[in-house]
Amino acid sequence: MKNIGEECRQFLQRFVAHTTLSVAQECLRQLVITIGPGFHPDSRLGDYVHPDGSTLFADSEITSLTPGFEQLLTFLDDSGIAPCEIAMPVQHRLLGKL
What tens digit of pLDDT does each residue of 32-52 get? Predict the structure, then answer.
C-alpha cells in the first residue's frame, strides 16, 4: 500500500517552497488523485478513511499536514479560485476509471 501521508507531504512541501498559482493548482490536483474521488476541500484530513474504515492518515500526519493543506486552500481562495473548480474535473476522471 502506498504511503499517502508521505505523498501528500511532498506535494505540500513543493507548494510551500514555490507558492505560485500554477504550483498550488497542481498540488491540489495531486492531492485529489492521492486521497481519491471522495476528496472535498471542506473535509479535515482526519475525516478520510480507507474502505475498511481505518483512517487514511495517522494522527501525526494529520498534525503535520494540516497547516500546509489549509495554507494551500487559503491561497487558492485568496487568488479567486474555488478549490472545487480544480478538484471536480480530477474527481470525474477518477470516477470514470472505476
Answer: 999 988 899 999 999 999 889
Q: Which range has the worst mean pLDDT, 2-6, 68-72, 82-86?
A: 2-6
Q: What is the pTM of this model?
A: 0.87
| Domain residue spans of the chain | 4-96
Tell the residue number behind the cell numbers 491540489, with chain if given: 28
DSSP collapsed to 3 states, 30-80: HHHHHHCCCCCCCCCHHHCECCCCCECCCHHHHHHHHHHHHHHHHHHHHCC
Q: Which residues contact 59 (CB under 8 A, 6 or more apart)?
A: 46
- The residues pairing with 49 across neighbouring beta strands, listed in sequence order, are 55
Nearest to 39 by CA among 51, 27, 48: 48
